[in-house]
Amino acid sequence: MTRVDAPRHLVTRFAPSPTGRLHIGHGWSALQAHDLARESGGTFLLRIEDTDVTRCRPEFTRAILEDLRWLGIGWDGLMIQSTRFPAYEAALEALKGQGVAYPCFCTRGDIARELAASLHAPHGADGPLYPGTCRGLDPATRAERIARGDPHSWRLDMGAALARTGPLSWHDAQAGDVPVDPGALGDLILKGRDRPASYHLAVVVDDAAQGVTDAVRGRDVFASTHAHRTLQALLGLPVPLYRHHALVVDAEGKRLAKRSDGLALADLRAAGVDGLMLADDLRAGRFPVGIFLR
Ligand code: GLU
Prior knowledge:
The structure is a single chain. This protein is α/β, with parallel strands linked by helices. It has 2 domains: 9-83 and 246-294, HUPs (Rossmann fold, 3-Layer(aba) Sandwich), CATH 3.40.50; 85-199, Glutamyl-tRNA Synthetase, domain 3 (Alpha-Beta Complex). The protein has 10 helices and 14 strands. The protein has helices at residues 24-39, 58-70, 85-97, 108-117, 139-147, 158-165, 199-209, 224-235, 265-270, 275-283, and strands spanning 11-14, 43-48, 78-80, 101-104, 123-124, 127-128, 153-156, 169-172, 176-179, 189-191, 214-218, 241-245, 248-250, 291-293. The strands form 6 sheets. Strands 1-2-3 form a 3-stranded parallel beta sheet. A 3-stranded antiparallel beta sheet has the order 4-7-10. A two-stranded antiparallel ribbon has the order 5-6. A hairpin with a 2-residue loop joins strand 5 and strand 6 (127-128). The longest helix has 16 residues, at 24-39. The protein is globular. The chain binds glutamic acid (GLU). Glutamic acid binds at residues 15-17, 49, 203, 217, 221. Residues 15-17, 49, 203, 217, 221 line the site of glutamic acid (GLU).
């Protein structure tokens, strides 16, 4: 008798940040995640990534829900990250307990000065890496400055993290197996001065909490996956299959910005465009004039 493996139950998600209005690039991304789940009877989840409390606005969250419904996208569950700060705090505590997180007292200005003064500042995917100024502070100084109320963020000590986990890799549906590159993001922020959890920490905790099996998202965050995989290993969380997709760009090859007037889903809706027809056009790769997938 041949053994037939049960098909995998796919769980995908769309995870926008409500810092602006969604444009057709977001619509296309949401459709990718939605359709992948729907085609196989899987689960499609929505997650509002509003941990950046200074930039996120409730009206943008409301608009996201309207935009998606208009495109005919329904979701099987909704998670709002701003309700989950205790979960991120618990993850940060676990990392502190492993000795792989450290407080960083540097301001942006401090970091810029440090980088300007160094002869060869290593660069990662998003620009120069944090030069590690606070990594070597002794425990007494750290404790004293925290007790004094000095503003600080918390960073991952990437070197210490990988020394603990050993070499890691992750899988992308297109790129295949990708070994973790510690230099992609360096000592990334886990918790900001004014931000209760960074995107990196929250995304990892919540992909696990929502049981996401397939992380469908843009290539713009490809490099972040090195950090995400490292955090998953440290926190003992499952690793989704990553499906980084092409980006919707303008004629100059630039990604559409959240303020893209005329291409914002809300503008198209207001102009009387039929959302279901637009969704089918995007599915078929029919983009408005001057817009491409790259
Ligand atoms: N909130 C992130 C963004 O809008 C989500 C990226 C991801 O799907 O992990 O880019």
